[in-house]
Amino acid sequence: MDAELFPRSRVEVAPGAVHVPEWLTPSQRRGLLDACRAWARPPAGLRTVRTPGGGTMTARQVCLGRHWYPYGYASTVVDGDGSPVKPFPGWLGDLGRRAVADALGPDAAADAPYDIALINFYDARARMGMHRDSDERSGAPVVSFSLGDTCVFRFGTPESRSRPCTDVELRDGDLFVFGGPSRFAYHGVPRVRPGTAPPERGLTGRLNITLRVSGFAAD
């Protein structure tokens, strides 16, 4: 990405929803990408998600901690190879809590530990329709890290998947956190901008790592 005249600033997109550009350090980005590549390998690796209506999501996904499928969670990849879901690492939860504290303040950091990650890979044609993250039993903030290509991230309201909404450009290393009154807001990715990843990332496409607190009792 070429240098900009004015650096991008932190923005509160909606109450409880904050975009922090380039929050991840270069070393954190490299480490997170290496980890994502390991998690994407089978068993319980990157998969195409099939919807109840018979369609497929264009973004492919791998899960940590608990396996998400439309519309619930399981301890195994019930809609894939049936393997146990990969464990959620403690260091990723620590990173998530630091992100929440930086974006929303120390009082917003969840008491319960982050225990779920959904990692979505977007190629040039992938999209994500407007949806809410509502399959958890916790209202703790959702943490989103971006790696690779830039995307347009559309953020709406808890009441409607249509207008009003705000489009935010998420780039490599950006953080987006939404909690409080925006925790169950509709959001989606209408497009990815191919070829915008920093050359040093060595990634064609976009990775989005979202962290959540399940609120479920331990198995």
From TrEMBL:
Coiled-coil region list: none
PROSITE patterns tied to this protein: FE2OG_OXY
Record's keyword terms, sorted: Dioxygenase, Iron, Metal-binding, Oxidoreductase
Keyword Metal-binding among UniProt keywords: yes
GO biological process terms held by the UniProt record: oxidative RNA demethylation
UniProt-listed SUPFAM superfamilies: Clavaminate synthase-like
Any one annotated GO CC term: cytoplasm
UniProt remark on cofactor binding: Binds 1 Fe(2+) ion per subunit.
GO molecular function, one term: broad specificity oxidative DNA demethylase activity
UniProt-recorded name of the protein: Alkylated DNA repair protein
